[in-house]
Amino acid sequence: MKGIIHKYSRDNIDTDVILPGPYLKIHDHDELSKHAMEGIDTDFSNKVAKGDFILAGSNFGCGSSREHAPIALSHCGITAVLAPSFARIFYRNCVDGGYLLPLEIEKSTLEEISDKDTLEIDLEKNQIHDMTNGKKFSISPFPPLIKKIIDAGGLMYYKE
Amino acid sequence: MNITEKIIARASNRNSASPGDVVFANVDKLMIHDVSGPGVIKVFEEWSKKGIQLDKVWNADKIWIAEDHFVPSADRISAENISKLTKWAEKFGIKKHFKYGLGQYGICHTLSHEEALVLPGEFYVGGDSHTNTTGALGALAVGLGHTDIAYAMKHGRIWLKVPETLLFKIIGKKPPHIMAKDIILKIISDIGTDGANYKTMEFAGNVVSQMSMEERLTLTNMTTEAGAKNGIIEPDVVTDEYIQQRTADSYKPVLGDDPHYLEEYTYDIEKLEPFVAKPYSPQNGAAARELQTVEINKAYIGSCTGAKLEDLRSAAQILKGKKVKVRTEVLPAAQSIYIKAMKEGLIDIFMEAGAVVGPPTCGACCGAHMGILAKDEICVSTTNRNFPGRMGHVESQTYLASPLVVAASAIKGKITDPRDVSN
After folding, report:
1. Partner A contacted by B69 (CB < 8 A)
2. Are B127 and B171 in the same domain?
3. Residue B311 in contact with partner chain A when CB distance is under 8 A
4. Residues B317 and B239 in one domain
C-alpha cells in the first residue's frame, strides 16, 4: 500500500467530526463521502486521492456507532487510518465492514511523520516506510481474528 | 468471574470467559433505530449484490425497532428512511416497532428499560453507541455498527473480545443536590474519554445500591463516553422491582462469582460538588460553581441520558414557580414518561416557567434537527456528548450537566449550582 498522509494530530477525533450528525439520514456512500471530516477540514474530500491515509492522534473515532464514519472515509479513497489508538466501535466498523484498515502506531511515530509525506505500508512486516523522510516505523500486528476477517474481506465473508 | 464474564460465558456456551478471549456469542436481543436500521438495510443491499441474501432474520421476536433520531420526520429523506424501515420490518415479521404518533415510542435506550425489552442476564446488542445504558439492568448491553448488527441479525451471533473490567465503588452519604450525572462526569474527568476503552465499567457501593434504576441508567449510559464496551450493575431488589412493574417475563439474574477486576476505584461522594463537563469533551470537568460567569443561550433537558421521569422531576423541583431567562427546551425521553410527567403536573411547571416542551426525539442531542445551536451559542444540557458540532454549529458550545444544574442555569441565564437558587 502506498499513499499520501493527511495529518490531524489532535486526540479524540470523534465521529461527530468525521461525519457530522445532520448527515446520519444519508445512506448513499458517494454522498456521504462529500462530508467526510467536515468537522475538522471542510476541504477534506477534495484533497484526498484514492489510496491515501489519515494520520491522527489517540482514540480516533470515539463517540457514536455510526458506520457512516468509516464509509465516508473509505469512499473518499482513504485505505488506512494510522493512530496510536482507536475507539472500539469505529475499529470494529472499519474491519467488519471491510472499509479500511485501522493501524495502531507508536505515539512517537505521530510526531515523526509530516502532513503530505508519502508512505509505503507493508502489512506482512508490519512496517511503515516514510518515503519522504526515509524513516521506518512499526505497526502493531492485528490480533488473529481481526487478521482473518480482514483477509476474508469483511465479517460477512468470514467463516466461523 | 465477574457478571460480564459470566454472561459472555453463558452466551458463548463456555464454562468460563477470561479477559482477552475472543468468542462468538449468541445474542438474546437486538435493536435498530431510524438511523442504524436504514444503515443495516443498506449493508444487506450491498451483500445482496455480492450474492449473500437475507432470506430471514435469525429471530424476528427478539428484534425491536425504535423511531427516535429524525422524528417527527425532519425532512423528506428522514421520512423516506422511516417508510423504508417500516416496509422492511413488515417483510421480515418484526412486530416490536415503536412508531412515533402511534402509542408508546421514544428514544431507543429509554424504551429498552421503560418497556423491559431487555432482561437481567441477557446479551443485548444495539445499533447505537449508547446501548451501554441498558447494562444498569444487569444485562450485557453492547453498541455496534451496521455491519455487526446485520451479521447478528442474520446469524444470531457476533464476535466479542472478553473485556477487562474496571470496578467503580461509589460510597459515602449522597448530598441531595448530587445526581448520578455529577458522579459519572467526575469519573470521566478523571479517567478520560478513552479511560475505559475496550473495557467494562462496573458500578457498586452503597450509593449505587441505594440509587433508583433511572439514576443507575445515567451511570451506565455515560460509560460510552469513557470508551467502554459496556457498563453494568449487578441486579438486586431495585432491579427486580423495576422489571416486575413492567413485564411478566421471568429471568434468571446473573451475579458475579469470585469476581476479578483489572482495577478498582473508590469514590466517596460526600463532598462532591455539582459537576459539569465543559466544551469540547465529556472529560473536560469542572465544578458548576467555578463556571458561574459563563452566560448561556439555551438550557436543554432531553435525551436518553437526562429526560427520564426522575430527571424531569428534578428539573421541575427547581423550575417550579420560576421563570427561565434563556431558551429552554424540555423533551421527555419516551411517550410513557411524557404522560407520567403530565399527570404529575411537571409539564405545567415547565410551560409556566416559559420552557417549550417537545416530543421525544434524539434530534437536538445529536445536532440533527428540532433545536440545533447557532455559531457561538452556548448550551447547558442534560445530554451525553459535547464534541465540536455535536449539538449544532461546529463553533457552538455545550456544557454537560445534571438536570438540577441545567434547570438552575435556565433560571439564572448562566451556569449555576442548584444550591445557589432559592426554592
Report:
1. yes
2. yes
3. no
4. no
> Residue A105 has which C-alpha cell?
502506531
pLDDT digits (tens, 9 = 90+) for B242-301: 999 999 999 999 999 999 999 999 999 999 999 999 999 999 999 999 999 999 999 999
Q: Cβ–Cβ contacts within 10 Å for residue A46, how many?
A: 9
Closest residue in B to A158 (Cα–Cα): B151
Tell me the nearest-neighbour CA distance from A57 into chain B, angstroms: 12
Please tell me the distance from the alpha carbon of residue A20 to that of residue B366, in angstroms, as a whole number: 9
Of A27, A89, A145, the CB nearest to B159: A145
Q: Nearest C-alpha of chain A: how many angstroms from B115?
A: 23
Rounded-to-5 percentages of helix, strand, coil across chain A = 35, 25, 45
Helix B335-343 and helix B346-353: axis angle, to 10°?
80
- The number of folded domains in chain B is 2
Q: Could you report the per-residue pLDDT of B168-222, keeping only the tens digit for each?
A: 999 999 999 999 999 999 999 999 999 999 999 999 999 999 999 999 999 999 9
Residue A72 and residue A93 in contact, taking contact as beta carbons nearer than 8 Å:
no
CATH number of the domain bearing residue B353: 3.30.499.10
The model's pLDDT over A64-76, given as tens digits with 9 standing for 90+, comes to 999 999 999 999 9
- Nearest by CB to B389, from A20, A64, A145: name it: A20
Distance CA B93, CA B96 (A): 9
Residue range(s) defining the domain that contains residue B246: 3-266
Q: Are residues B209 and B145 both part of a single domain?
A: yes
Phi, psi (5° rounding) for residue B336?
-65, -35
Whole-model pTM: value is 0.96
Q: What is the arrangement of strands in the sheet containing B140-143, beginning at the earlier edge strand?
A: B96-98, B63-66, B29-33, B123-126, B140-143
How many angstroms separate the CA of residue B349 from the nearest CA in chain A? 31
